[in-house]
Amino acid sequence: MKKFVPSILASMMVMSCSQLSTNDSNELIVKDNAPKNIIMIVGDGMGPAYTTAYRYFHDNPATAQIEQTVFDRHLVGSASTYPARVSGYVTDSAAGATALATATKSYNGAIGVDVDKKPVESVLVWAKKQGKKTGMVVTSQINHATPASYLAHNESRHNYNEIADNFLAAHDNIDIMLGGGWQYFIREDKNLVEEFQTKGFNYINNYNQLTQLPSDEKVLGLFADKGLPWALDDSNKHRLSTMTKAAVNQLENKNGFFMLVEASQVDWAGHGNDIAAAMAEMDDLAKTLEYLENYVKENPDTLVVLTADHSTGGFTLGRDGDYLWQPDVLRTMTMSPSAIAKNLAKNSITLSYVNEMLNFNVTSDEIKELQATKAEAQRSLAEFNQSTKIAGKMTPSIEKALHKNINHIIDQRTVTGWTTFGHTAVDVPVFAMGTQKELFEGLSDNTEIANNIFYLLGKK
Ligand SMILES: [Zn+2]
To answer: What is the second-level CATH architecture of the domain 26-315+422-456?
Structure first.
């Protein structure tokens, strides 16, 4: 257990209380200096290239220096992310979240269960048992892999309805949940929202309601059918920070709280190899962290830990031999590439129309490329519609083809590289601020992050 003791404290103890067993000294630290509030943040898919890219995206090119980001200010270490042996070295978000939530390595797809599919307890549920309030704030559907692993148990992340049912059964363990997911909570077979209301939850479905939450009451807030819109397209481009502020206000109480916050869609942008969407999601996360940085200043008895469950897309800054990464065009974009693709699929592709949506000037070659992509996708779709259906063969999507092409144009402009549409096994950064942040310094494993939190919550 010595690894849990911050080094300065550890040496003081060797000097002054060498008679104490390690167990006694642990109790001493927990009692004297455990954080009252713990906020665990997961940047889903946010490998090290994402926080580096955000620094240059966020940089003001008019000044000589490269401005520090909130991530730069609070980096304390890195973490390995590998799942249980049975799933190799590359984790998915379910095994990653199960490790971060329960300190248990499991197989890819596991939600709060071990390799034998037995339920394992999360830090959130443990915190509740210690008398704290608990919350979850995400930009995916609220029953997506990461939040699910903190509150539910299921052998597969894909059982979304079962996981939503699980949330209702676990309602005593949670005080506020904010995210998306109408289609899993308001279903033909049952209306979980009404059931949550009968359990005493206030239901909201509009961001504007976040400022008028009844104090000291439970809240379920669902704001989209599945995940929330991309930050770039949302009515509130900083919806994660808005929801986080509302949840913190709601959760504050004399016994403290544990809250999970997830920037869920960094991962989705990575899967789509979409750097424009990724930077906007990172900006929302940065605003959330900046708010918490101030919160910790005013409430130093709070601990904030941020890490990723894995990296996504094999994203990197630079490609094809060029010593360049040029995020300039990303800074002015106001619409996601997928929303732009939707418009280009419906309307005719002209230079002025594309320039207006991208908010930077494309070349005539790039326009020709987009027109050719659309014509080709239309041809494939017509062919598909005429041919006899083959089971499992996907309908060609004009929108998807155009989305890929827009991403390609942006990748060429920014000199952005990708290696995969999936996850990679690189270590991820760890950030911490506030009371006992020292516990998270250096290289750790994702399970140690959960173990540290359990420890700070008094679990032996
Ligand atoms: Zn993913």
So the answer is: 3-Layer(aba) Sandwich (3.40)
